[in-house]
Amino acid sequence: MSSFSSHFLPTQFLVSKPHLSQFPPTSPALYRRFPRLVMSAQSTTATPFDIKQYMIEKAAMVNQALDSAIPAKAFPQSNLLHEAMHYSLMAGGKRIRPILCLAACKLAGGLEPWALPVALATEMIHTMSLMHDDLPFMDNDDLRRGKLTCHKAFDEPTALLAGDALLSLAFKTASNLSSYPVDVSPDRIARIVGELARCSGTEGVAEGQLVDIKSTGLSEPVPLDKLEYIHLHKTSALLEAAVVTGAIIGGGSDEQIDRLRGYARSIGLLFQVVDDILDLTKSSEELGKTAGKDLASDKTTYPKLIGLDKSREFAEELLGQAKEQLNGFDSESAAPLVYLANYIAYRQI
Amino acid sequence: MSSFSSHFLPTQFLVSKPHLSQFPPTSPALYRRFPRLVMSAQSTTATPFDIKQYMIEKAAMVNQALDSAIPAKAFPQSNLLHEAMHYSLMAGGKRIRPILCLAACKLAGGLEPWALPVALATEMIHTMSLMHDDLPFMDNDDLRRGKLTCHKAFDEPTALLAGDALLSLAFKTASNLSSYPVDVSPDRIARIVGELARCSGTEGVAEGQLVDIKSTGLSEPVPLDKLEYIHLHKTSALLEAAVVTGAIIGGGSDEQIDRLRGYARSIGLLFQVVDDILDLTKSSEELGKTAGKDLASDKTTYPKLIGLDKSREFAEELLGQAKEQLNGFDSESAAPLVYLANYIAYRQI
């Protein structure tokens, strides 16, 4: 049993599968580390918020829409590009980014389906970043989510171009005025395109990936501030864009959007700290990708830099910061984002 | 002297450098193949339209704005991504796409500077496509515009991610509402983002590049319709987006935009046919990139498929079709686009 898990949660909370099955905890005693969560889930609803069911339902909605976004037989000459895009996009991700986007839209006053186009866009950008990151001259990964990576299932040119095309499709999908209700004004669409562009380029994923690669395999360890810089760009930026674009579509005020941005930055860093911990403590079979890779590749991670215990303490701190930002919102409406933060903290894959 | 050139133009038209120096022809006799061009350039202006000066001025405006779009010291941790983006973006392209975009904006009723953000975006997308196309597992090019390609000057991860970041920056630049005059409504911004996304992904550059790669080195030659499919996606789509987005920003009517779309498709294909011809007839020194590469790589080109003479006839036909679409516009306003079509047809690099 890892100290991170035992510090946060009762023993029986950690051994079951699937990983979502214990949300919410079934005994009041188990809530002792989630005071706000207890309030939001128990004081305003008859039954506790069912995060497992929530994620299953939203992921199904997202998966169906993603599947439709890439028609199989669109081109007379070649379907290869579509096949590769479809292969990677439908390879079984947890859809955390689009679900965050839908939840933020609702919290900001909209309906979840309003944000579906931009929610899909965040998953397309995420998938594209994985496809490029997996290439042989990058992280050189053969497995992703238990399946062959795109360049192994197809080839390198196909993976490169399918990634490029997914990035373009993200912007096409998010900018399509007719896919939003009339309540969503065009200036909001322009804003969300700007957010997506920011999170995927020099202020986000691409910058984070490059600094990450250039920091791997050095003789000296990467200092903590640089590690945080990498993760804030590589991981947090896109989670931030998912939450913020959802809130923009939902009609959130500037103050609400600022708070949700803060929430997203914390869970983004949290996501990466937990990823580092899982890479060290789980098997490849459990993760569906090559485990222990960070150790083997001399990649700097939080556990390597500050140890496993302090990494877990840092994760707890980030979780607290994320939830702090949700104060001031209606607790029932905020429940999905509270539980999603917990999910990111306590996931086992 | 090539038959293409002599078929189109008097001998003295072809030997001088720089390649823009003969626009416009200085003797009335030289206009015999450009009846509409003569009308537009001579009947409505005191002096013939000076395409050379026009392109120098517009390229300078574009270059200055591109240079400003990628600040040198933006990030505390790493400037590598910016350096690589800046290196490739400022490596001396002719800026045909942004110039077309500015010209179309003016023709549609706007002022040229209105379209500058989206004009820059077209050049960023173009540069990104070259950076990815030059990678070793793609076209494997060491030289581009007389300089080392990005992955040779930096390395492969940097070229990949700088390309990704340029694509994102294109969308960030084009979607920035505050960079347009108030006359440009947000719904037009959403439309241009859609056009840029369309031209760069499955309906444009990425699809064209993939089908091109998969059609190279086969035992059977690529049929003509497939070759056209490749070029319409790989080259025409982005030229089309440049012209169409310019026209949208300028406030063009749907009919005007349709005509300009037709113009752009023709010059896009023309651009590629001429590129194929130049690869066969020019030296590496003249082109600033590896010449004869298409022949060496078993790449199907127009000259290989239909011969050099018929390729030149096809180019003439496309030039005529492009100019046909400009009828109905005010001839003086249309002059830049007429001359730009000529420039694409008669360029020597």
UniProtKB/TrEMBL annotation, chains A, B:
Q: Which organism is it from?
A: Carex littledalei
- Look up the record and name the cofactor or cofactors this protein needs: Mg(2+)
Identify the PANTHER family for this entry.
Answer: FARNESYL DIPHOSPHATE SYNTHASE (PTHR43281), OS07G0580900 PROTEIN (PTHR43281:SF24)
* One GO biological process term: isoprenoid biosynthetic process
GO CC, one annotated term: cytoplasm
Q: What is this protein called?
A: Putative geranylgeranyl pyrophosphate synthase 1
Q: Does the keyword Transferase apply?
A: yes
Family, similarity comment: Belongs to the FPP/GGPP synthase family.
Q: Name the Pfam families for this protein.
A: polyprenyl_synt
**InterPro entries attached here?**
Isoprenoid_synthase_dom_sf, Polyprenyl_synt, Polyprenyl_synt_CS, Prenyl_diphosphate_synthase
Keywords linked to the UniProt accession: Isoprene biosynthesis, Magnesium, Metal-binding, Transferase
Pathway entry: Isoprenoid biosynthesis
Single GO MF annotation: metal ion binding
